[in-house]
Amino acid sequence: QVQLVESGGGLVQAGGSLRLSCAASGNIFSINAWAWYRQAPGKQRELVARITRGGSTSYADSVKGRFTISRDNAKNTVYLQMNSLKPEDTAIFYCNAVPLILAIPAYWGQGTQVTVSS
């Protein structure tokens, strides 16, 4: 089992920055990849950024050049640095951890609200 707790959300003006944190505990050595998803009101949850066990990263086109995902192994924490925020980035952001064993469902945090005002 892996537990994920997100923090760092809040209200920010357009053009501003926020850094989200995802603190992980439990059997984190069983995780193959970490990701951030978001879900805006009335929309489906979408993948924002992903970082693999080996450190490779990937991003949704809508956030490339603005968001950066990183990982601090010593703190068991995954971050999402968000710069140049836009009102359309407003959503609940969720941390996700995908196990090495594919038969085990991915783990999710409870989410943190990000609101960007225009």
Report on the structure:
The chain has 118 residues and is mostly beta strands. The chain has no helices and eleven strands. The protein has strands at 2-7, 10-13, 18-26, 31-39, 46-52, 57-59, 67-72, 77-82, 91-99, 107-108, 112-117. Strands 2, 4, 5, 6, 9, 10 and 11 form a seven-stranded mixed beta sheet that branches. Strands 1-3-8-7 form a four-stranded antiparallel beta sheet, with no helix packed on it. A hairpin with a 4-residue loop joins strand 5 (46-52) and strand 6 (57-59). The protein is globular. The N and C termini lie far apart (40 Å).
Q: What value does the average pLDDT take?
A: 96
Strand content: over 45%
Element pattern in H and E: EEEEEEEEEEE
Low-confidence stretches: none
Please count the helical segments: 0
Largest sheet composition: 7 strands, mixed
Q: How large, in whole angstroms, is the Cα Rg? A: 14 Å
Total count of strands: 11
Structural class: mainly beta
Distance between the termini: 40 Å
Helix content: under 10%
Oligomer class: single chain
Shape: globular
